[in-house]
Amino acid sequence: MKATPLVVLENVDKHFGDLHVLRDINLSVQRGEVVVVIGPSGSGKSTLCRTINRLETIDSGVITIDGSPLPAEGRGLARLRSDVGMVFQSFNLFAHKTVLQNVTLGPIKVLKKSKAEAEARGMELLERVRIANQAHKYPAQLSGGQQQRVAIARALAMNPKVILFDEPTSALDPEMVQEVLDVMTDLAKEGMTMVVVTHEMGFARRAANRVVFMADGQIVEENTPDEFFTNPRSERAKDFLSKIL
Ligand code: ADP
Ligand code: MG
Questions:
Q1: What distance in Å separates the CA atoms of residue 54 and residue 170, rounded to the nearest whole number?
Q2: Index of the ligand 1 atom closest to the CA of residue 49
Q3: Residue 5 has what DSSP assignment?
Q4: How far is the first Cα of the chain from the last one, in angstroms, to the nearest whole number?
Q5: In this predicted model, which residue has the larger pLDDT, 189 or 70?
Q6: H-helix or E-strand spanning residue 44
Q7: What gap in Å lies between CA 35 and CA 163, rounded to an integer?
Q8: Is 241 exposed, middle or buried (0-12, 13-18, 19+ CB in 10 A)?
Q9: What is the pTM of this model?
Q10: For residue 206, what pLDDT is reported?
Q11: Is the confidence at residue 2, as pLDDT, over 80?
């Protein structure tokens, strides 16, 4: 018996006014799979991520997470948001909360954990992203790479089934990119299900099970990283790779 995929998009379409940003998207992500999404700017990668945790609505099609269709609103939406973690390019930490408070807020408010329990788990997660020694600082006192690792710990604190990463290293100074990719590579090895929008081709080669190439709102090509990078099939992918590699 084939396992049910954790995330399924079927015939998903989305417009912003006249702009057709997602065109008949079909994509399944298996449990434990790492899918890297690449493609030119404006091709719909962020919108794709945002529809999966319902930060954007879709016009037609179906998205299911772990067998349940995306809820429209209400309680179901809060559940979904804890099942689907998201890490953004711009970190989006709470500026007036400490590192540890950033990581414990969701578990206390949404998962109804006690403060002590949330803090114990929060410290474990901060260890895991190698930043426990900064637990009582505020985000502005940290480097970009450190802030992004806190954002990853914050996502993990909700025990998500899948984490979406939208260009998590694009806003970082070059010397900080690797520390964030290392944490993501560890998560991938530990079996976390991940959808990662990135231009970091080294990460894609090392950590991805599958590369999805998008252009103009469509999935143009899907393949293993090896096949995709050495033998892209579409002209769009060849053209894109010639510009970035
Ligand atoms: P990518 O992440 O691949 O760069 P996006 O998903 O951000 O692409 O954007 C896809 C297209 O949708 C772009 O043309 C962008 O300008 C447009 N777009 C994104 N968000 C909105 C929005 N909230 N309203 C109108 N247009 C948008
Ligand atoms: Mg984007």
A1: 23
A2: 6
A3: P
A4: 40
A5: 189
A6: none
A7: 11
A8: middle
A9: 0.96
A10: 94
A11: no
User: In this predicted structure, what is the pLDDT of residue 189?
Assistant: 95
| Beta carbon of 21 within 6 Å of any ligand 1 atom | yes
| pLDDT surpassing 70 at residue 1 | no
Pocket test for ligand 1, best of 12, 38, 46 (most atoms within 8 A of CB): 46
Q: Would you list the domain boundaries of the chain?
A: 7-243
Establish whether residue 41 lines the binding site of ligand 1, counting it when its CB lies within 6 angstroms of any ligand atom. yes
For the Cβ of 46 lying below 6 angstroms from any atom of ligand 1, the answer is yes
- Going by CA atoms, what residue is nearest to atom 1 of ligand 1? 42
Tokens of 1: 């018996």
223 pLDDT more than 90: yes
| CATH fold group of domain 7-243 | Rossmann fold (3.40.50)
Residue nearest to ligand 1 atom 6, measured at CA: 44
Rounded Cα–Cα distance for residues 228 and 79 (Å): 35
Question: Ligand 1: which residue has its CA nearest to atom 15?
Answer: 42
pLDDT, residue 215, reads 97
Of 94, 95, 75, the residue nearest 83 (C-alpha): 75
* Rounded Cα–Cα distance for residues 230 and 225 (Å): 8
Query: pLDDT tens for residues 125-169?
Result: 999 999 999 999 999 999 999 999 999 999 999 999 999 999 999
Quick one: pLDDT at residue 82?
85
Q: What is the spatial distance between Cα 52 and Cα 45, in angstroms, rounded to a whole number?
A: 11
d(CA 178, CA 174): 8
CA 225, 226, 230, 233 torsion-angle sign: negative
Complex ipTM: 0.98
Q: In the chain, how long is the greatest CA-to-CA distance?
A: 55
